[in-house]
Amino acid sequence: MTDRELLQRASAVRRQAYAPYSQFRVGAALLGESGRVYPGCNVENASFGLTVCAERNAVAQAVARGERAFRKLALVADGAEPVMPCGACLQVLAEFGDLEILSAKAGGPYVRTRLSDLLPKAFRLDRRKGKKTAR
After folding, report:
1. pLDDT tens-digit profile of 48-64?
2. How is the chain split into domains, by residue range?
3. Is 67 a catalytic residue?
4. Lower CB count within 10 Å: N or C terminus of the chain?
């Protein structure tokens, strides 16, 4: 799948976002190692802390279908500039390893980065020893 195709998938699901408070719609398309694409959009809540970001919705879709390894994440959002995932989303994504992130404003050009560039010392729990680490 090309970058453009993945961004188009993110743009399409962005239209489904539930953003009555911020009016800031975000769509995500997560490309799994299997080649499947998992969509996600933001879902706001009157209790703002309960809002779920598009990225985490896409991860939840993938995990619910058994996918655990990812290649790329594409984001398309309203706004003047491409946006990057928030800190909570970066940490959730880091649970599954490093991946490429493409971000575009609606109808605009995109930027490319890696998760490890945005969160270079992600929190990890060494499951073998129960120790907290940064990688």
Report:
1. 999 999 999 999 999 99
2. 3-134
3. no
4. C
